[in-house]
Design goal:
Layout (H helix, E strand, L loop, with lengths): L1 E2 L6 E5 L2 E4 L4 E3 L5 H13 L23 E6 L5 E8 L4 E4 L11 H13 L11
Antiparallel strand pairs: 1-4, 2-3, 5-6, 6-7
Helix pairs in contact: 1-2
């Protein structure tokens, strides 16, 4: 998902249930099972053995945190139950709750996630320019 302006696009209704203001969403892509597997591999296997990366907390040149991209996790009824949002400019992220296992983040992983979004035809927020 790519959004025009960060802010109150995703809001909590109750624990484990979120509402998305789709009128502010610029792009929305449903992932295939193969794409979900590829994204899961990036999120939870990069940074652990056997793939290693350089630990990198945030780009010191940017302090924006204007997340333009997110991953929405839905239940069988299509309700958003968890989400991850990303700001590829400053390489910061937000997880909707502790239920999403926090993985080791590094410079390479952010590039891999950004490239994954781009490979799924998400244009907004995936370029390296601010």
């Amino acid at each position: 998902m790519a959004v025009d302006e960060p802010g109150d696009i995703i809001s909590g209704v109750k624990p484990g249930e979120f509402v998305v203001d789709y009128s502010q969403v610029k792009e929305f892509i449903d992932l295939s099972k193969t794409s979900i597997d590829a994204l899961t591999d990036i999120l939870y296997n990069v940074g652990f053995t056997p793939i290693k990366c350089n630990i990198y907390n945030a780009n010191p040149g940017y302090s924006c945190y204007e997340p333009r991209n997110a991953i929405l996790f839905t239940d069988k009824n299509g309700k958003v139950v968890q989400y991850m949002e990303f700001c590829f400019a400053c390489q910061r992220y937000y997880l909707s709750s502790a239920r999403i296992r926090n993985a080791i983040y590094c410079e390479q992983k952010f590039d891999m996630i950004r490239n994954f979004f781009a490979s799924q035809a998400v244009k907004y927020g995936t370029n390296k320019e601010r």
